[in-house]
Amino acid sequence: MDNTLYEKVVGCLMYLTTTRPYLMFMVNLISIYMSSPTELHIQAVKRVLRYLRGTINFEVFYKMRGNKDLLVYMNNDYTRD
Length: 81
Known about the structure:
Blueprint: H1 3-16, H2 24-31, H3 39-54
Helix pairs in contact: 1-2
């Protein structure tokens, strides 16, 4: 993958963080290496894209009007004792 394609994909992922803010950390990490990505960085981008393909129906939906309560669903492996 050349730098231009890597930059375009990372730019698209940055835009996507408006509806998927939980991706911000990973996108920030991979954007650091936009000037000279290695195979490891390209694999990280591919991993994010595979995750997105598997979670295509997950999103944040903002309403102009309606209930002001925030309802959050999370999918993680962390359990609190």
